[in-house]
Design a protein that fits this description.
Blueprint lengths: L1 E6 L5 H13 L3 E6 L1 H11 L13 H5 L2 H12 L6 E4 L17 E7 L1 H8 L6 H11 L4 E5 L6 H13 L2 E2 L13 H14 L26 H5 L1
Parallel strand pairs: 1-2, 1-4, 2-3, 4-5, 5-6
Length: 229
């Protein structure tokens, strides 16, 4: 199973990191696209924890790295080997999934910013990630978007409705509490479990309603560092 995971520029980068770890644990062929703003948020939310020097901006450390170094950095946060996934540059339209002749089996965007969601809803394929999402919709492949925003304006809601009508699954980053979460990581895993369910994968990370909580299945440790931060 080939899955493209997009991490866009919304708060909640841990959802993308943890989703990547869980997908790797289920032995999918994993591809990642991380937007420029998402790198900034990754560094700010689950990054190096080093204070930025005066005159530097958030994400400057990661932006200064080359592609290989950024991939290693991300693999460490996901607690997977660097070879566990392919990291595609945001402006690399040679990625196979940019063509309907070679669509992925599923596209997940976690978290999904309102700007990204709006562009996909209106067919504005101005980036690799929006183009791949457009391909998933037109080729009738699962597209899961994980918005992390509140409150929601009428524009946000209308864009979500347009995407849902086009066939996308809208999975807001809204964790439940009936499984008695003890940590922030438990809350993250609840959402990640729902994400993977939409593409036919049982992550086994959170107990289902009506089932007694059991031992946590191994789904990769990615995101736990960020969840505690």
């Amino acid at each position: 199973m080939k899955v493209l995971l997009g991490i866009s520029g919304a708060s909640g980068a841990v959802y993308g990191v943890r989703t990547g770890a869980a997908l790797h644990a289920r032995r999918v062929e994993l591809h990642l696209v991380v937007t420029r703003t998402a790198w900034e948020i990754l560094e700010a939310e689950i990054g190096t924890k080093k204070a930025a020097r005066k005159g530097t901006s958030a994400g400057s450390t990661l932006r200064a790295m080359g592609p290989s170094a950024r991939k290693r950095w991300l693999a460490e946060r996901m607690s997977v080997p660097p070879g566990a996934f392919r990291l595609h540059e945001e402006d690399d339209f040679s990625i196979p999934f940019a063509s309907g002749s070679n669509p992925p089996d599923a596209v997940v965007i976690a978290p999904c910013s309102m700007g990204m969601l709006g562009r996909i809803a209106h067919g504005v394929s101005s980036s690799v990630l929006t183009r791949c999402a457009d391909v998933a919709l037109k080729e009738k492949r699962p597209l899961v978007v994980v918005p992390r925003e509140t409150p929601l304006s009428a524009i946000h809601l209308e864009n979500m409705l347009a995407l849902a009508r086009a066939g996308a699954d809208i999975v807001p980053a809204c964790p439940g509490f009936y499984h008695r979460p003890a940590t922030v990581a438990d809350l993250v895993d609840f959402v990640v479990s729902r994400i993977l369910q939409r593409i036919g994968i049982d992550a086994g990370l959170a107990a289902r309603w009506g089932e007694a909580p059991g031992p946590r299945k191994k789904g990769g440790r990615g995101g736990r560092q960020g969840a505690r931060a």
